[in-house]
Design goal:
Helix 1 (40-50) packs parallel to helix 17 (469-478). The protein is built from 21 helices and 19 strands. A hairpin with a 5-residue loop joins strand 18 and strand 19 (567-574). By secondary structure, the chain is α+β, with helices and mostly antiparallel strands.
């Protein structure tokens, strides 16, 4: 196709680009030129793409019309490529933090995290003032320790709730796989530990769900497919799962996900469309759809997901829970499907920032399988018990980007910034972040190339009809990228990393809405084929990409609802290894909005208390 080569963008050197508020850099909105397709339409489109000659022409047109050729494929820039977004740990002296030994076992790290939290009396007092709150990890631990209930009773309630959620009236499709015998076995062992007065940690007996992209015995790891587990056996727990298990957590099953993470809706034609607990006719977002939904619905105070393109933070925001993606390399990727080597990261979906922090303490830390020897930071936890929230915080805001969302989200997030300024005196610093749409396309090219390459040997042994139709389309596009395009994408990664480093010289974090739109409706024509909805998909990932492509930590916190009562989240993006500050800032944000949280339409009270 070289004969049709288009002229690519010519980028100025990073040193010549102004990132100030009055920069002449133009904000390029997502230029998505693709209609929504599902049912027969997506089948026909897939057939056309898979045709040898016509498919190649169609792919060329799609890449050209959606600016991939102009902004990435044929772009001219001077920056060298950066293939892995890792950065050495910088020991920046932070206020209100606690340094701990970096090689503590998981249960001791969890205890160190607990000592950073407010006291029980403070916590209980806050809960009594709330009209609704999801039960937290500490709520479960206290209920077990007091004898009010047991892990075994909670497990029985959990199983009954999951079975109810599978009824045709709800058909929530939370899980791909759960094993009642294994759940009850873990719960019985935990109950006995509490009876002896020997719980391993506050996570002992707490139900935690695992995305079906992460190995967790005794379950197969399907990646949302019907075939992957037949070609790749799950024989051991992933490192992050192993660490949770060592803390006594009850691992309750494998949550539903978008097939192979190749979409943003959470609609899986094989295992069902995961439905949003706030409105069961709406999507959850993806690809960690089931993990977000089970936390939102009260089945678990926390769950693990994998965030390759906002796949933790996006569904967390759409389902009204906390989503936390740590720095690239902070959590071992051992035992996670290798769908995205340089952009994917194990993340946490949780009821509260405190719960996300506790699980983070359990799963983070240096391991023998760590990606790189340079990634061995000092263990540093934020002190959240202080009543004086961090002051003098500067929030970087790119106005045109921030406002590129629905009106409800724009108003809600702007009011949140006003509230942060009023209560804490935090300052918003106007900046310009260049090449945002270029970064989105370069990330898409990267994640697609890595996904198809990592699965190529397995896909050779699979009948293509075993893949969902939307996934077939995605993989046909992914497989069209060549080595030159991939290299250009990594040069763009280098370029955008430098821009963000400059911004973090001006501010502590970057602030954005988490998504550009709230959850949209699940259409019946998508249930059996999946769907292609790149316009909504682009809106969902609009603010996600820097966290993945650049390896930056990021967190989303619920701050309100749109006119239909669907959740809205605000996101903070931090510099590499800034988790303590990020957790502390998000904890302060949560304190301003938690009293306004609403109960979802579908909610299960596993501790059987009256709210």
């Amino acid at each position: 196709m070289v004969v049709f080569k288009n002229k690519g963008a010519v980028y100025k050197a990073v040193r010549d680009v102004d990132i100030g508020p009055n920069s002449r850099e133009v904000y390029v909105r997502a230029n998505v030129k693709a209609p929504r397709m599902a049912g027969v339409l997506v089948k026909v489109f897939a057939w056309f793409l898979e045709a040898p000659i016509f498919g190649a022409i169609l792919l060329y047109i799609l890449k050209r019309n959606n600016l991939i050729h102009k902004l990435v494929s044929f772009a001219e820039l001077e920056e060298p490529p950066v293939f892995v977004p890792s950065q050495p740990f910088e020991d920046v002296k932070e206020q209100e933090v606690k340094y701990i030994e970096s090689d503590l076992p998981p249960h001791q790290q969890v205890q160190q995290a607990i000592e950073c939290l407010p006291s029980f009396s403070e916590d209980a007092s806050k809960h009594r003032k709330l009209s609704f709150h999801r039960w937290t990890i500490l709520d479960y631990s206290r209920a077990y320790s007091s004898g009010e209930t047991t892990p075994r009773l909670v497990a029985e309630q959990f199983i009954a709730a999951v079975q109810e959620s599978c009824n045709p009236q709800l058909h929530m499709s939370f899980f791909i796989n759960y094993n009642t015998g294994d759940i009850l076995k873990q719960a019985t062992e935990s109950t006995l530990r509490y009876e002896r007065g020997e719980p391993i940690s506050v996570l002992d007996g707490v139900p935690i769900a695992i995305k079906d992209e992460i190995d967790c015995t005794p379950y197969p790891t399907t990646g949302g497919t019907t075939w992957l587990h037949k070609l790749r056996a799950c024989t051991n727990d992933a490192c992050c799962v192993q660490r949770l298990r060592s803390c006594g957590a009850i691992l309750v099953g494998k949550t539903n996900m978008h097939e192979l993470g190749a979409g943003t809706s959470g609609i899986n034609p094989h295992y069902g469309a995961t439905r949003n607990p706030y409105n069961t006719s709406k999507v959850t977002g993806g690809s960690s759809s089931g993990s977000a939904a089970v936390v939102s619905a009260g089945l678990c105070p926390a769950a693990l997901g994998v965030d390759g393109g906002g796949s933790v933070r996006m569904p967390a925001a759409l389902c009204g829970v906390v989503g936390f993606k740590p720095t690239f390399g902070c959590v071992s990727h051992s035992g996670v499907l290798p769908l995205n080597w340089t952009v994917g990261m194990v993340g946490i979906l949780a009821s509260t920032v405190e719960d996300a922090f506790i699980v983070y303490a359990a799963i983070s830390g240096k391991t023998s399988s760590h990606q790189s020897s340079m990634l061995s930071p000092k263990a540093c936890f934020p002190l959240l018990k202080s009543t004086n929230f961090t002051s003098n915080i500067k929030l970087a805001k790119y106005g045109e980007w921030f406002n590129d969302c629905s009106d409800d989200i724009k108003v809600c997030c702007s009011l949140a910034l006003d509230k942060l300024h009023k209560h804490y005196g935090w300052e918003t610093v106007e900046v310009t972040i260049p090449d945002i749409e270029t970064m989105r396309l370069a990330h898409y090219l990267t994640i697609g190339s890595e996904c198809t390459t990592s699965l190529s040997s397995l896909l050779q042994n699979v009948n293509i009809e075993e893949l969902g139709w939307d996934t077939r389309v995605a993989f046909r596009v992914y497989g069209s990228f060549d080595s030159v395009e991939y290299l250009n994408a990594q040069r763009i990664r280098s370029r955008t990393m430098q821009f963000h480093e400059k911004i973090f010289e001006k501010a502590d974090v970057i602030v954005t809405p988490t998504t550009g739109a709230t959850a949209y409706s699940i259409m019946n024509d998508a249930l059996k084929t999946g769907e292609l909805d790149y316009i909504n998909g682009a809106a969902f990932v609009r603010y996600q990409i820097a966290g993945n492509f650049l390896g930056l930590p990021a967190v989303t916190v619920p701050i309100g609802y749109d006119r239909l009562g669907l959740p809205i989240g605000l996101q903070f993006i931090g510099r590499h290894w800034s988790e303590p500050k990020l957790i502390r800032i998000s904890h302060a944000l949560q304190a301003l909005f938690i009293s306004d949280y609403r109960k979802p339409e579908v909610y299960y009270d596993l501790l059987k208390k009256k709210k």
